[in-house]
Design brief:
It is built from two helices and 59 strands. It has about 775 residues and is an all-beta fold. The strands form 14 sheets. Strands 27, 28, 29, 30, 31 and 32 form a six-stranded antiparallel sheet that branches. Strands 4-11-10-6-8 form a five-stranded mixed sheet, with no helix packed on it. A hairpin with a 2-residue loop joins strand 36 and strand 37. The longest helix is centred in the N-terminal third of the chain and has 12 residues. About 50% of the residues are buried.
Length: about 775
């Protein structure tokens, strides 16, 4: 008898332990010995079977933050216990290597690997599957973490902001894993609100360049940047930027020599108005208006209308307009604007005459001052009035307006009974207004030298609008108009007033034609406009006879101190002949009766430096810029002259740079503006208004104003102009004479007559065109 007692595992085989009786053993042995077989054959034991592990795919490239599925196959795993997963890398541990959807899986089951947001260095990660049944058995896959094909775009990509101004940003991520969006950051400033697709950024309290960044959450290697120039400029509140009339905005951080190109700069919007815009647009930052805080541009037209536009909004947004939406009209009932036909057909201003001189703003009281020209609808009488408007509402202030009238003693042209009266029809209020120490200064010439006119300068109290004092350039003679091609009187830090006159009688006592005049600051009561000093060229009588005015352009005061030993206070003036005069404001030289070829009593004369000037110079960083012209159809060029402390030629006697032949223009030339951050990126902005549409002896059809940008260090380098972009993208409205570009907060504002042909035949009779950095 045989019994199975026990069994045990040994490797892959079985061993039976048998218990045999002695008789059974004997039988077994006997049977073995007496079988009749010819041989005894033993069968081999089966080979051992071992667990094995494999991972699929064995190698893979996975983009950052993207996912990839893997499987582990385990063979000979009798118990089916599967594998345990792990990640490792040369330069990463934990989440820096990526993440797994689980730590274990059954054989053949999928597991998901998600790559980290940043690429390790080196970029390889090992994904290992280890058998649960036998931890000596494992397999690995090699993963290369690669950059994703995601991309981030940001809107806007560039622009300008005033301190504290908000700006909305929108970010778009293509191939965005799980629509994770972006996170926001900035080198300065803060975010009022933000989400994964948008943010409201608020500019810092200090000026400079700021970079706003939108970074993909799914792929931190992908981001988009916006360059924002932040300005602390409070306003362009007077003609040519300041009381010295230098024409410089040295707080411009958005516009640079590299981003003013056709690809990144152009016309961004325009605002239609009711008539041509001759006055320079004025700009105020962070004004409380219409229940919010906004940058505002103020525009005056030839229909005696003033507009307050949002300076940044596209499409154009109007905050107020006189004679509309409950805001008072600047023309009393029964009155309208003046026309060129009223002025004997003078073609200087066509077809209508309203607000000609550039207004001035007092930011302390929130007031804009301006002069209107009106007539009764029957044709007479004519009126000029001084208005003071609230810049937040457009409403009249200080009991205004005030009717402008004046009478001085004299026997000159147009006098009666020993008195000369101001004629509101005859006198042309073209020069810009000046606000100085609580006084509003207004000046006049005539229309086309028509009529028995005189140059006038009047001062009004800024808070009462009462007339304080009057000065007539030629009370006992004729002319001496204050033209200055739209420029206004200048003022120094002591309150003294400077201006230039045109052709007229000169005698040095009560006749000051073709002279630069200095008036004493109004510090006494009653106030009096007293000529403290003056300069008159030695050949003034020839200037008068030939109508080659000294005062065809405006006076510019050089910054104090000028750097010239013995002459700390200087001014510059150029005339119709193209002579440039450098005059000591403390000793202007009067009239040199013994001089025959030059005025030796002044600091310097650069004779014939220009072909002529109907405008004003601009000064920046030791350089003066002139837009020469000669009142003909001959092509002319912008010219730059250096200024330094070493004499006798403090002004260079020849240009240090000129515009290239690609920028040539005809009359009237340009009064330029300069933008710079105060140290670099200086740009000269000029309007070619050759196609201003009026004749003045030169036949020219109306056509677009062309805005140009030049490198201030070399005028031969044109950066951009408004005629370059295809499809007329940047075309401005039709030009008007003597307009000046206003530069503020990354934008340039120019006044035009819209598509009017100067005869009222357009569909848009006036327009302000706004140029700036293209958002994308």
């Amino acid at each position: 008898m045989m019994r199975v007692f026990a069994k045990s595992a040994l490797g892959a085989g079985l061993v039976l332990i048998l218990v045999l009786s002695s008789s059974s053993l004997a039988l077994l042995l006997t049977g073995c010995g007496n079988s009749g077989s010819t041989s005894n054959t033993n069968s081999p034991s089966p080979s051992p079977s071992f667990i094995s592990v494999s991972v699929s795919p064995a190698a893979s490239s996975v983009q950052v933050s993207h996912a990839q599925s893997f499987t582990a196959t385990v063979t000979s795993d009798a118990q089916g216990r599967g594998v345990i997963w792990s990640l490792s890398g040369t330069s990463c541990i934990g989440a820096a290597c990526g993440a797994l959807s689980g730590t274990s899986s059954a054989s053949g089951a999928l597991i998901t690997y998600r790559a980290p947001a940043s690429i390790p260095t080196p970029p390889t990660v090992s994904l290992t599957a280890t058998s649960v049944s036998d931890n000596t058995r494992s397999a690995s896959a090699t993963i290369t973490v690669a950059a994703s094909n995601a991309s981030v775009t940001l809107m806007p990509m560039r622009g300008g902001l005033t301190v504290g101004q908000p700006l909305n940003f929108t970010a778009t991520v293509t191939n965005d894993v799980n629509s994770a969006g972006v996170k926001w950051s900035a080198t300065a400033g803060s975010f009022k609100s933000q989400s994964t697709s948008s943010a409201v950024y608020v500019a810092p309290a200090s000026a400079g360049m700021v970079t706003v960044t939108a970074t993909s959450v799914a792929d931190a290697t992908k981001s988009a940047l916006a360059s924002i120039g932040v300005t602390d400029l409070k306003g362009v509140i007077t003609y040519h930027n300041d009381l010295s009339r230098t024409g410089v905005n040295a707080q411009e951080h958005a516009l640079t020599n590299s981003n003013v190109t056709t690809a990144t700069f152009g016309k961004i919007f325009s605002c239609a108005v009711d008539a041509a815009v001759y006055a320079q647009p004025l700009w105020v930052a962070n004004l409380t208006i219409s229940g919010g805080t906004h940058n505002v541009i103020f525009v005056a037209t030839q229909h005696n209308t003033v507009y307050a536009f949002d300076a940044d909004a596209s499409p154009c947004a109007t905050y107020w307009q006189t004679s509309a939406n409950g805001v008072n009209s600047l023309m009393p009932p029964g009155e309208t604007w003046v026309t060129s036909a009223d002025e004997a057909g003078c073609a200087l201003v066509i077809p209508d005459i309203g607000i000609l001189g550039t207004p001035v703003i007092d930011p302390a009281t929130g007031t804009i001052y301006l002069v209107t020209n009106t007539k009764t609808t029957s044709g007479a009488p004519f009126h000029q009035r001084l208005h003071a408007l609230d810049i937040a509402t457009g409403n009249e202030k200080f009991g205004g307006p005030t009717e402008i009238a004046a009478v001085v003693s004299g026997t000159g042209a147009g006098s009666s009974a020993g008195q000369v009266s101001f004629d509101p029809k005859l006198n042309n209020q073209r020069p810009a207004l000046l606000l100085q120490n609580g006084h509003v200064f207004i000046s006049w010439a005539s229309y086309c030298d028509f009529g028995p006119y005189h140059g006038w300068l009047m001062a009004y109290n800024a808070t009462s609008l009462l007339q304080e004092t009057v000065f007539n350039v030629s009370p006992n003679s004729f002319a001496g108009g204050i033209w200055m091609s739209g420029n206004g009187p200048a003022a120094d830090s002591s309150g003294n007033i400077y201006l230039a006159t045109g052709n007229g009688t000169w005698n040095g006592t009560d006749g000051f034609g073709d002279s630069i005049l200095k008036f004493q600051a109004l510090t006494t009561t009653p106030a009096s406009l007293t000529v403290l000093d003056y300069f008159t060229p030695h050949d003034q009588s020839s200037l008068d006879t030939k109508d080659v005015d000294l005062g065809s352009g405006g006076v510019m005061l050089l910054p104090d101190p000028s750097g010239i030993s013995g002459h700390p206070h200087l001014l510059v003036q150029a005339d119709k002949r193209g002579n440039i005069y450098l005059v000591d404001r403390d000793n202007m030289g009067h009239f040199c009766s013994t001089c025959t070829t030059s005025d030796t009593q002044i600091v310097q004369t650069v004779s014939g430096a220009l072909t002529g000037l109907w405008g004003s110079p601009t000064y920046w960083n030791g350089t003066l810029y002139f837009g020469e012209t000669d009142a003909t159809s001959n092509l002319k060029y912008m010219k730059a002259f250096s200024f330094g402390p070493t004499g006798p030629n403090f002004l260079s006697t020849s240009p240090t740079s000129t515009t290239a032949s690609t920028y040539a223009y005809t009359y009237p030339g340009a009064t330029t503006s300069v933008s710079t951050d105060g140290n670099a990126n200086a740009i000269v902005w000029a309007i070619d208004s050759s196609a201003f549409g009026t004749t003045e002896g030169i036949t020219r059809p109306a056509g677009p104003a062309i805005l140009h940008a030049f490198d201030a260090n070399d005028l031969a380098k044109e950066l951009w102009n408004s005629s370059q972009a295809p499809g007329n993208r940047d075309t401005a409205g039709n030009s008007v004479k003597f307009t000046v570009p206003t530069v503020a907060n990354g934008k340039i504002y120019i006044g035009t007559r819209g598509n009017d042909d100067t005869l009222g035949n357009g569909t848009t009779l006036g327009e302000v065109d706004v140029y700036g950095l293209l958002p994308n």
